[in-house]
Amino acid sequence: MTGTLRVDGVSKSFGGLQALADCSLTASAGRITGLIGPNGSGKTTLFNAITGYERIDAGQVYLDEQRITGASPQRVFALGVGRTFQLTRIFPRLTVLENMLVPANRGRPARERREHAMDLLAFTGIAGHAGALAGTLSYGQRKLLELAYVLVADPAVVLLDEPAGGVNPSLIHHIADRIRELNSAGRTFLIVEHNMEFVMGLCHQVTVLDSGTVVASGPPEVIRADPRVLDAYLGTETAND
Amino acid sequence: MTPDQTAGKAAASDQVAPDPPATAPATVTTKAGTRHAWQLSSRSLAVAGVALLIAVVGLFPLVFTNPTVTNIGVITLIFVAVASAWNTFSGFSGYLSLGHAVFYGTGAYFLAVAARDWNLNGAAVFWLLPLAGVVTAVVAVPVGLVALRVRRQTFVVVTIAYFFIAQLSASNLTVTGGSSGLLLPVPNWAPETFNNPFYYVAMILAAGTVALSVLIRRSVFGLQLRAIRDDEDRAAGLGVRAMPVKLSALVLSAFITGMAGALWVYFIGQAVPQFVFDPLFDLAVVLMAFFGGLGTVAGPVLGALILEPTQFYLNLQYTNNYESEILFGALFLVVILFLPRGVLPTAGEWVTSGRIRRLRDGWLTRRARRTANRPAPPATGNLS
């Protein structure tokens, strides 16, 4: 099975701030990996480093056995890694369907690309808005649109940055169901999320970042019980359970 | 299971989207039929409108034979082409260029020099127009490679810098005739119909540019340009190769602008740096696009068709020149303040909001009637 994403000893600093320090993790093919950690722990910086939005100071990033370190965002996307952003980044002055047609998806006739786009919009549940300007969508619908257009080019690995952030509870379940369905078809997911219920219920593997370093990695039930994780991140939440 | 296969199984919650039911009842078929008929009629209307416009523009110099009027017609059509070409790059991509006079001037000087050196005159000079476009497009490649390395506001400043480099070069180079410029051959045509060949060449150029603009707007290339306008980094993250897309649009825009500049200089008969590289040229083109609707196909055309004759009219009415410039500037302010998105998009919004207001008013009236007809609730006694 293809679609294993491996980060090996990645470091990144912004001036005097060390955002990532010798960070290593693996998102195994066909699995859902959660990436958690307190605010400022380097989760989004790691996403940016993987997808070519930030140049890293040291380390390597591999997709399967191919090194993608330093590749441009369009190259990373072309190689099969799609991502969404913490604050949704759609094209507000294009219609929802036009948004779906932006991702480079050459080799298919125009009619087939539109059909595929509509299928994905139906899959995420926003096909009824295909003709609306994307800027008029609600926040939750924008999250779904972002997920849908990342899927257009059929990436092997999908990175989701806080897919449940700022979304109402019923929509969170809808998003989780869609991710499970896509994963059951063999797609790899790496998900940054603060909603612990969402992460623990969805992910096969969870990696914990703290101050740019991986402090723990394992199945959700192990992570829940890990004292280092409780110290770094989950202590308060566990106490409230 | 792929998303395509699972699409049918996806059941959106009410909060997500009220998607239509999978099996369409008979009423939906009727609505779809009505919509299809409406789309057909609106398309037929659009085709009829374009055909009528072409007929009117084509017959214009035959009906209005006054040379002053046809002179306005030639310049207006040249600006229709330039404003559309400018919009194809700047309006679609969001990179506002204030340096298109560089391309206009390059085409103009190329034609002036080529016509002189190759001893061309009359209608033969028109064959130089495509070549002027090609030369300008070649010039636009290094210009774009440097200017497009920066974003948005900085890009505007870089294009202004290019403009001044071009103007100063034209004023000092021997090949351009220095500050005194170059004279072009005057065709030996009858005075009463002298403008007509220029008019029809300008009409072909304008029509071709608008047709190209429509094609680009509907293409994947145009979609990528508009995605770059909305969020260039995001577009790159979805596989859009931003630099080649932007550069191609700029070169295409420069190609047309160069041809327009070449036609214009042949029409006025003289290439002088301060007129060929005129800062007001860029302002006029930007104003036309903003006036009609930036990033739309019809907007810059409408802007040029209204503003260029208006400017001529004001110049004729106020011969001291500065009063007409003040009035033109005031018009620009009015447009920016009251129609910031341009005439066509604002008019579209007015129509839509009018429809919504009528729907809301109708619903409020019906609700008031229902409330009035509802029987009064039974008395519950004195609560005091």
Largest sheet of chain B: 2 strands, antiparallel
The rounded distance between the terminal residues' Cα atoms of chain A is 37 Å
Tell me which oligomeric state these chains represent: heterodimer
Helical stretch tally of chain B: 14
Q: Total helix count of chain A?
A: 9
Overall mean confidence score, pLDDT of chain B: 86
Instruction: Tell me roughly what share of residues is in helical segments of chain A.
Output: 25-40%
Can you give the helix content of chain B as a percent range?
Answer: over 70%
CATH 4th-level superfamily of chain A: P-loop containing nucleotide triphosphate hydrolases
Greatest interface: A-B, 52 and 37 residues
Helix-strand pattern of chain A, N to C? EEEHEEHEHHHEHEHEEHH
General shape of chain B:
globular
Q: What keyword list fits this structure?
A:
heterodimer; A: alpha/beta; Rossmann fold; 9 helices; disordered C terminus; B: mainly alpha; 14 helices; globular; disordered N terminus
Topology:
The complex is a heterodimer of chains A (about 240) and B (about 375).
Chain A: E1 5-14, E2 17-27, E3 32-36, H1 43-50, E4 58-63, E5 66-67, H2 73-79, E6 81-83, H3 96-101, H4 110-124, H5 139-151, E7 157-161, H6 169-184, E8 188-192, H7 196-202, E9 205-210, E10 213-218, H8 220-225, H9 227-240
Helix pairs in contact in A: 4-5
Chain B: H1 3-7, H2 26-63, H3 67-93, H4 100-117, H5 128-147, H6 152-172, E1 182-183, H7 195-218, H8 220-236, H9 242-268, E2 270-271, H10 273-276, H11 279-292, H12 298-317, H13 322-338, H14 343-373
Antiparallel strand pairs in B: 1-2
Helix pairs in contact in B: 2-7, 3-7, 3-9, 3-11, 3-12, 4-5, 4-6, 4-9, 5-9, 7-8, 7-9, 8-9, 11-12, 12-13
